[in-house]
Amino acid sequence: MTTRIDGRSPQWAAVSPEDFETLEVFFTRILSSKKVTKGEIKVMGYLVRKALHLGEKGAYSARIREKDWVEEAGLSKNEVDKVLAKCEEKGWITLDKQAKPVAVELRLHG
C-alpha cells in the first residue's frame, strides 16, 4: 500500500504494515476512547510522531528530553511522569525506568 505523504510533494512513500497498525490503533482505540485524557492523547500522539519520524527535520533523535516533552508534546513538567505511568497502566507503552533517560517502547498492536 502506498499513500501520499504531502499533497505538495511529488514523492510517494510506502507505509509498512506495522506503521499502519500503529496509526490505526492510535486513531481507533486511543482517540475514540471516552476514557482517555488530554494528557494521554498528547503523550501518545507525540510518541507516534516520534516513532514514525513524522515532521522530523534533520537528524532523527530517539532521545526525548524533559524539555522535548514540554515544548513538543505540550505537557507541563509535572504532568510527564504521571501521564507516562497512566499510559503504561493502559498497556500502550512500556517504560524502562533504569535507563537514563527513561526508555519508552510503544505497544500499539491490534
In short:
The chain has 110 residues and is an alpha+beta fold.
Structure report:
This protein is of the alpha+beta class. It has one domain. Helices cover 43% and strands 13% of the residues. The chain is built from 4 helices and 4 strands. The strands form 2 sheets. The chain has a two-stranded antiparallel sheet. α1 packs antiparallel against α2 (38-51) and α2 packs across α4 (77-89). It comes from Salinithrix halophila. This is MarR family transcriptional regulator.
The string of secondary-structure elements, in order, is EEHHHHEE
The rounded distance between the terminal residues' Cα atoms is 18 Å
Strand content: 5-15%
- List segments where confidence is low: pLDDT < 50 over at least 5 consecutive residues: none
Q: Structural class of the helix and strand makeup?
A: alpha+beta
Count of all domains: 1
- Regarding quaternary structure, what we see is single chain
User: What is the tally of beta strands?
Assistant: 4
State Rg.
Answer: 15 Å
* Average pLDDT number: 81
The backbone outline, from C-alpha atoms, is: globular
Q: What is the makeup of the main sheet?
A: 2 strands, antiparallel
Number of continuous helical runs = 4
**Considering DSSP H and I runs of 4 or more, what fraction of the residues is helical?**
40-55%
